[in-house]
């Protein structure tokens, strides 16, 4: 009788474990689908920080600043944005303000008018 009780308990445990595993797999699948949908809606961008190094109305000047930045700091991406009437050059894709601040400290000698801003950033490509 004792062996029979133990066998019943083991079978119940295995049954419960299998159900929990199935529920976890279903939840994981739902989370993956939500993540895919979110990235479709946001184009894979999320809130973060960048360092703005230039703002002005002269398009050629903005492109020259971007080019100078990329020559000096080619490991950090640079973005050009136009919001009438200004051309803006921003650099980096930083998740935290501390990461942006480290970049700011590194470039402030070459770009003294630089400052940190909140922006939509792109995920790091590996």
Overview of this protein structure:
The protein has 126 residues and is an alpha+beta fold. The protein has 2 domains: 1-43; 46-121, Alpha-Beta Plaits (2-Layer Sandwich). The protein has 3 helices and 4 strands. The protein has helices spanning 2-42, 59-72, 97-107; strands at residues 46-56, 78-83, 86-94, 115-121. β2 (78-83) and β3 (86-94) form a beta hairpin. The mean pLDDT is 83.
Task: Explain the layout of strands and helices.
Elements: H1 2-42, E1 46-56, H2 59-72, E2 78-83, E3 86-94, H3 97-107, E4 115-121
Antiparallel strand pairs: 1-3, 1-4, 2-3
In N-to-C order, the SSE pattern is HEHEEHE
- As a percent range, the share of strand residues is 25-35%
What class, by secondary structure content?
alpha+beta
How many individual domains? 2
Through-space gap between termini: 60 Å
CATH architecture term of the largest domain: 2-Layer Sandwich
Main β-sheet description: 4 strands, antiparallel
What is the CATH topology descriptor of the largest domain?
Alpha-Beta Plaits
Low-confidence stretches: none
- CATH classification, class level of the largest domain: Alpha Beta
Number of strands: 4
Strand order of the largest sheet: 2-3-1-4
Helix content: 40-55%
Shape, principal axes of CA atoms: elongated
Look at the structure and name the CATH superfamily of the largest domain. Answer: Sporulation related repeat
Radius of gyration: 26 Å
Mean pLDDT: 83
Continuous helix count: 3
